[in-house]
Structures are given as structure tokens and as C-alpha cells.
């Protein structure tokens, strides 16, 4: 009985909110990564800045009005939209043996994690970007970086990921993870970056 | 001198044309539907396509969800947009350079509910991403937020 009453109360409350409710609402959510975030809401010449978690703005003809929202309200109003949010892209790095398109033993284990991430997604697109250290000229490193990316794609294909879902790119020695002079053998630069979306 | 100038100009034009080509290629593949349930459709150049998981999106696409529908998309710059039931979401403008993260992304929620996690474009430049509602422009500064538009 009390459950019914509560449900009826919630229904009436929802109805009241819906009837009296604003045309447009914006709520800033807490950022998972904990970075500084903000949304500016500009309506004509007026501007409201939302910079705290669950800070909200309601827009009506009379302008923007700030209001505090909360997790529960957001879930009630935006639950379906939030439930449809795709998994965030996941990033991995595989490291390579010097001068070769062969990845290191530790990196072989990373491939398992990559596949766990792939398996979570109903549809996946993977970007594989090969890099080298600064030993050797550009032509050599461009080719080697592409080769490294291709090797990763082949390793993925062997485990059942269709090549159509993978884009490979070779960046040679242009984007070093660890800045070095030319001609420096740096293991952390001999890598392939993998983005799973 | 004239010769040098014209050659230089020619090269500049060539680069500009090549740039345009890249730009067009980028616009033809701006993101992908990753999540879809219930009724979801995509309007493209006057046609309505079923909004299935896996569909590659183009700039100017308009996503619509029915009373039981919801859809989630991942854009090329890693922005995540997801809409609840009875929503109309337009991908009005999208360009993105994956090497530099430069670009521009403008989306518009005409109706319904939308959840946004901004991506690399907004991270690179806080002015480069906006979400519009019928009455306002939302500027995005590296953010997760929700928007609703009641009719």
C-alpha cells in the first residue's frame, strides 16, 4: 500500500514537473577523469556558465535560470540517453624490438587486454598507429612504422578481428613518445598505439 | 620572378585542392552508431536509413529516435553522443584532423534528451565544439553533460 502511495506520489510529482517544466534543461555532470570542466549556455546576449557537478540551467522565454540538480534527477530524466552512451574509446600501447616489426614479450600480454576490450563491443573500429625511434632515416622509419602497424593488424586478424575494422597508419619517427635527438635507440618510442572504439 | 610567383601560386592552389579533398573524405565518415535500441532512423540527403549498430555517419546526418528508441554514437574525435526516446539530433558540422586534433563540431538537439562526453576537438580548443538547442548555444570545455528539449 505504501509502495503504491509512493508510486502515485512520484507519478504526481513527475506530472507536476512535466507540466510546469521548462522547455530546455542543461546539467553538467561530474567528469570521470576529474578534469576541470564547464559548459557555457548562451541565450541571445545572456550567458550562464555551469562549472560545478550537477549545476543546471533551465531555459525559458524569460532567460536562463541556474538550478542545482542531482544524480537522481539526472537519472530520472536522462536515464535512457545515458544508458545508450557508447563505451569510451580504450587506448593501448605495444612496444617493439629494436629495428624489428616484432613486439616485445610483455606486449604480447597486452594483446589479451586489447581483445578483452574488443569483445565488450557489439561493433568495433580499431586504429593502429605505428611509430619508431630515431635510428635510421625517414624512409626506413616510415616503412618500419607501417610494418609494425600491419603486424599488429595481422595478429588481430589471426584472433578473429576482421581487417575491415582496422585502420593502420605509420608515423615513422615524427611523433616520439620520449623526445630524443636523432639516431637514438629508445625502446619507449618503438611502439604501436592502438585505439579501440 | 613572375614565373616563380605563378609556380608558387600553382603549388599553393594544389595544396589547397588536396586539402579540400581530405576535408571531404573526413566529412564522409564522421562517426559510427555503437548502440541502438527501439526505433532509430538516420535521415541523409532526403532518405531515411535504419539506424543500426555499425552504421557509419556522415556530416549533416539527422538521427531520430521513436518513443521506445535510443541511440549512442562515437565520433571520430572520440566524442560520445547518446540520445533518449523521441529525440532529433543533427550532426551539423564535423571536421577533424586526427594528427593535430584541430577541427570543428556542431551538433543540434531539436527535441528529446542528449548525453554528451566531449572528445579531442573540444579538448584541443574550447571554442571548437558547440551543441545547439532551439534557444541556446552550449559551449563545451572538456565536459560531460546532459541536455533536454521539450516540445
Neighbour order of strands in the largest sheet of chain A: 6-9-7-8
Radius of gyration of chain B: 18 Å
Which H/E pattern describes the elements of chain A? HEEEEEHEHEHEE
Assigned CATH class of chain B: Mainly Beta
How confident overall, as mean pLDDT of chain A? 88
Query: What CATH architecture of the largest domain in chain A do you see?
Result: 2-Layer Sandwich
Strand content of chain A: 25-35%
Write the CATH homologous superfamily of the largest domain in chain A.
OmpA-like domain
Question: Largest sheet of chain A at a glance?
Answer: 4 strands, mixed
Terminal-residue CA separation of chain B: 64 Å
Summed up, the helix count of chain B is 2
Tally of discrete structural domains of chain A = 2
The CATH class designation of the largest domain in chain A is: Alpha Beta
The profile of the biggest β sheet of chain B is: 12 strands, mixed
Low-confidence region ranges of chain A: 12-21
Distance between the termini of chain A: 47 Å
Write down the Rg of chain A.
25 Å
User: How many structural domains are formed by the residues of chain B?
Assistant: 1
How is the CATH topology of chain B named? Jelly Rolls
Approximate shape of chain B: globular
